[in-house]
Write a structure and sequence with these properties.
The protein is α/β, with parallel strands linked by helices. The chain has helices at 2-23, 36-44, 63-76, 105-125, 132-146, 183-186, 190-197, 214-227, 271-289, 297-305, 330-343, 361-368, 388-399, 410-422, 438-449, and strands at 54-58, 81-84, 96-98, 101-102, 151-155, 172-175, 206-209, 230-233, 239-246, 249-256, 259-266, 314-317, 321-324, 348-353, 374-377, 404-406, 430-435.
Length: 455
């Protein structure tokens, strides 16, 4: 029996060791804007990213959900797909997915072993060492070449122009809605942020653009014209024709590049997810048929019916209902609030909020105020988390003192919120919503559902 346990235990230790070595590098919150390091590393690895076509996905909100839908649709058409997304909710292995599932721990470790010697060489020759995200990007590109995949769907980490994923000429460049986020690195206007994200649009690619603010649309279209990319715009070449609520999600009619697709069931809530679905459909049409051919409607329906987006208005417990959502900026919080009001009819919703210090906490609180009855303010384990007392002071200004409690530790905050929901006169009409950051959502999800990686 001891021998039977040795191999899994050794693998778990090895995975923990690899993750520790990755985390010892520059975190995702620290950026030196250059592609020199990742280019040097991939060159030493034989440029694995050039062995398959790539779909790049950038934007401010909706990137991960859109990337997952693109992945699912492509797989429904029989393609072998690699997917790279960030950040992760529970396990770092979630970031690199093969055939819709997080890469197996042994393959994750093998990807590290493949790149590690070359990482050391690049570190020695650069002013700054490779970051956590740069190394993970190289691991993903290498793992996808090794698999091999028919296509890789790569979510940009931050911005676009100098993001480490942007070392390819993508077949399709997807830009979800652009808003204000990461202003310290991307600029403090919609136009400047759009300019950074426009950097993924290259000559020969199809630029699939979600509905944008006018100033973002102008920048993205100008970039497309400058490089000679083909453009597909939501609201013009494709979009959402109709949507109705359905049990467990919504039913959509979508206008694609090749025609209309009716009776599409999407098991995700909110108008924002319907728009993400329209963008994903257009991206897959552009990839498979150059945007000119209609896809098999039954296959499209089957692909969307299997869609999932963990940590996005996800029910992780019942009685009382506990939902987690990774909204971390005002635009995301507004979409969350709209979806809550549309998809659920709770009389009381207790919020558990933990926000990172570099985010617009007040804007996020203001967006959620209409749908939260009470708020339990807390923090994730991240060193970047906003102090609960500081967040609590902001919450009092937005919600009023009688609707706010401060509980320093997330597990205790979850217990308190559940107690408040259970004390409601009608338990079935009460819920708990955990949100404020991906880290808060991920840690709550792990506490409530267990720590296995999400698919």
């Amino acid at each position: 029996m001891t021998e039977g346990r040795a191999e899994p235990a050794a693998l778990a230790d090895r995975l923990a060791s690899v993750e520790a070595q990755l985390l010892a590098r520059w975190p995702e919150s620290r950026v030196d804007p250059t592609l020199d390091r990742i280019t040097a590393l991939l060159d030493l690895l034989g440029d694995p990213q050039g062995t398959y076509p790539v779909i790049l996905v950038t934007g401010t909100n909706g990137k991960t959900s859109t990337a997952r839908m693109v992945d699912g649709l492509l797989r429904s058409f029989g393609l072998r797909v690699g997917r790279f997304t960030s950040p992760h909710l529970t396990s770092v292995t979630e970031r690199i997915a093969l055939e819709g599932r997080p890469i197996a721990p042994e393959r994750f470790v093998a990807a590290w072993d493949d790149v590690a010697p070359y990482v050391a060489l690049v570190d020695a020759g650069q002013p700054y060492p490779l970051s956590f995200f740069e190394v993970l990007t190289a691991m993903a590109y290498t793992a996808f070449a090794e698999a091999p995949v028919d296509v890789a769907v790569m979510e940009i980490g931050m911005g676009g122009r100098w993001d480490s994923t942007n070392v390819v000429d993508p077949a399709v460049a997807v830009v979800t809605a652009v808003g204000l986020d990461h202003q310290a690195y991307l600029g403090d206007t919609i136009a400047s942020i759009a300019g950074e994200k426009a950097g993924i649009i290259k000559a020969g690619s199809v630029a699939v653009l979600a509905q944008q603010e006018p100033e973002a649309a102008e920048v993205l279209l100008r970039r497309s014209v400058e490089v000679g990319a083909t453009v597909a715009r939501e609201g013009f070449e494709f979009g959402v024709l109709a949507r109705d609520l359905a049990v467990g999600g919504q039913r959509l009619s979508l206008q694609g590049l090749g025609g209309a697709y009716d009776e599409v069931f999407l098991p995700l809530h909110g108008a924002h997810q319907a728009h993400n679905a329209a963008v994903a459909l257009a991206a897959v049409e552009a990839f498979l048929g150059g945007g000119s051919g209609r896809l098999d409607e039954e296959v499209v329906r089957a692909g969307f019916a299997e869609a999932s987006s963990p940590g996005r208005l996800e029910v992780v417990r019942t009685s009382p209902t506990v939902l987690v959502d990774a909204a971390h900026n005002p635009a995301g919080a507004r979409a969350l609030a709209d979806a809550m009001g549309e998809a659920f009819s709770f009389d009381q919703v207790v919020g558990v909020l933990g926000v990172l210090a570099d985010k617009d906490a007040r804007g996020l609180l203001e967006a959620l105020e209409p749908v939260l009855t009470e708020v339990v303010v807390t923090r994730s384990t991240s060193a970047r988390a906003l102090d609960p007392d500081a967040l609590g002071a902001l919450a009092v200004e937005v919600f009023g003192a009688d609707r706010v409690e401060v509980v320093a530790l997330l597990p205790d905050a979850l217990d308190r919120a559940v107690t408040l929901a259970e004390e409601s006169a009608s338990l079935g009409s009460s819920a708990v919503l955990v949100t404020g950051s991906v880290l808060t959502a991920g840690e709550a999800r792990a506490l409530l559902r267990g720590r296995g990686p999400v698919g």
